[in-house]
Amino acid sequence: MFGIAGYRPVVTDTVGATLSTHGPNLRALVGRRLDSVLGLCFTVDGQWCSTYPLILDFGGTRLELVFDGFDQLYLSWNTIDSGVPIDTADPADPADSADQDDPDDPDDPDLALAWADPGRPELDAVLGSAVQQVAVLENDFHLDRVDGQRVQTWLLAGLELVFDNGRKLQLYNVFSETTLELDTPESDRRRREILG
Predict the structure, then answer these.
(1) What is the edge-to-edge ordering of all strands in the sheet holding 113-116?
(2) What's the CA gap between 177 and 27, in Å, rounded?
(3) What are the C-alpha distances in Å from 113 to residues 42, 57, 82, 104, 139?
(4) ∠ CA 113-119-121 to the nearest 5 degrees?
(5) What pLDDT shows up at residue 96?
(6) Which residue in 62, 126, 168, 170 has the most C-beta neighbors within 10 A?
């Protein structure tokens, strides 16, 4: 998946499925320190590509996450070997043919992805801190239909990690991109299922 050798995430799209599949591993993060973070970055300018997995290393336990769609959370644990090069070529995609790609072109981001520190201040603020609490997040979703009826549901949004330095990191989905926020205020449009 994503050209990452050995990467086998499990997708969930509800809080219940996330808790039953990943609950014990998420609870086990409590008390562990966030030692490092890796993301797939464009080597041309070093920017993190937030549509690819983010690896949070808690003292040897690595949480690997990425989002897709409106409510799909892909989580895995210790499956990614960041020392193995990324295979970005898609043999079924004619745009990846040798005729169209120049392997010597450093400005082609499809050929220049590598694991690196994503360089995000939200992550820097919690590095070295221990997790005190983990929660799975849901967003209140409303849709006004053309027939005048209103649909309301709760969609799986992401994860929240509360650290012993008083900071709260939310990792959540915005249109298939992993978004990071620190110390987000409480909102009646978001609810938490606290794990520890």
Answers:
(1) 10-12, 72-77, 61-68, 54-58, 36-42, 113-116
(2) 24
(3) 5, 20, 11, 14, 31
(4) 150
(5) 43
(6) 126
Place of tokens 């937030």: 50
d(CA 164, CA 50): 26
| Residue 22, number of CB atoms within 10 A of its CB | 22
Predicted TM-score (pTM) of the model is 0.82
Evaluate whether 13 touches 71 at the Cβ level (below 8 Å). yes
Within a 13 Å sphere around the CA of 75, how many CA atoms are in the beta-carbon half? 26
Identify residue 44 by its one-letter amino acid code.
V
Within 10 angstroms of residue 99's Cβ, the number of other Cβ atoms is 8
Residue 117: both structure tokens together: 């520190």
Q: 31: left (phi > 0), else alpha (psi -120 to 50), else beta? A: left
Tens digits of residue pLDDT in 133-151? 999 999 888 778 888 888 8
Tens digit of pLDDT for each residue in 6-52? 888 999 999 999 999 999 999 999 999 999 999 988 877 777 888 88
